[in-house]
Amino acid sequence: MNRFADISLLLITCLLVLAILEAALRLFPNSWQESYGYYAADGTTIRYAAVEGGLYRLQPEPAGRFQRPCFDITPIAVNKSGLRGSEWSTGTNGIAILGDSFVEALQVGEGETMADHLARRLGRPVWNVGVSGFSTLDELEAYRRWVAPLHPRHVVLALYLGNDISGNSCDLTKRKAGRCARTGDAAGVVAVAAPSPSPAPPAVTAPTAIDVKDWARRHLVLYQALHDLKLLVVGVLAQSEGRLAPHLGLYMPETADWQQAWAATAGALAELKQATAADGAQLLVVGIPEHFVTSPTGLTELARAGGTAIPDGFDPERPMRRLAAIAAAQGLDFLDLTPAFRSYRDRYALTRPAFSFRCDGHWNPLGHAVAAHAVAERLGAPRGAELPDPRTLLGDEAFRTIFEHGLYRGGALTGKVSP
Known about the structure:
There is one protein chain. The chain is α/β, with parallel strands linked by helices. 44% of the residues lie in helices and 14% in strands. The chain has 17 helices and 11 strands.
């Protein structure tokens, strides 16, 4: 009985301490209140649905919303094809951009995506075929099913090195949806079950671990503080023990798993080249570096926020060189965006977060503008015109919210960048 009483007293004491901490965090201004507020009021309406071929895409939505702690984007148009942007207009001079969330671009407003900038700059139909989480193998299948019937003149494959290479391997990512290559599988590529539309949650008698985490994120300021504390502890331990985060094996000498992932990527690129050539389209492969590669304080950010050590042999340039070598061996037209980002960063002495957000590694509107500028020139736009400085381009309010503090709501670049 005494032991039960001791345990009960300990639990009551712990709950009381947590309640006091929660009250203190709510009473005194702090950054965790801000994060809590965004999650508590999350109004995201964007949803995905399974389609043929083991793929998935957005559910059509004329004015969707996507919210995260440092941006709140609405309206977001999803066309009848389940892809970002307005309804597609056909034409013999069209450009299709295949990619993942960087192309889909739910983090910026209407008119601010790379596809939007290209359409204005080149005066041609541009079809945004970006879907969050897609691998190169998914994009190959999307080209065959969704893009080839449109007969584009140019196909741009935007390959994000941060997860596209690993995403092509079932063994490295344990994907829950999409297409990936499995080591030793006779068929080579398998279609993993894609997500179904988001139904109303079923009734449960007790919350699961995931339910509890989601509840805590939406209802407790303390959750945000403990989450940051966990990241700090993980980062310190990783540094002291020399642990590399698994997904960053991409930047180290290749293991067998990464060799297989690169082989799957090379195979997908070869098949896409063959398919586009047979359709009379010109293929451009665009390499997108991770944000720490082009950030002014990239490796420091990675070590502190990424919970990883930076061991000997870690080479930020390794994956782009590998991709460039594959492109050269296959005779592919290839564009590395790294020089364009670094040139703009150095010209205007950009500070953190440079081309991404404080809370998210995806491109901010400035990143889309710089990327589109480089791609447009490769596709034939006149050279020589330079983008204006960040504050001029974004405007004071958007510049402040992205680089200093605040909630970006979209609209900074709409219609402004088309030199």
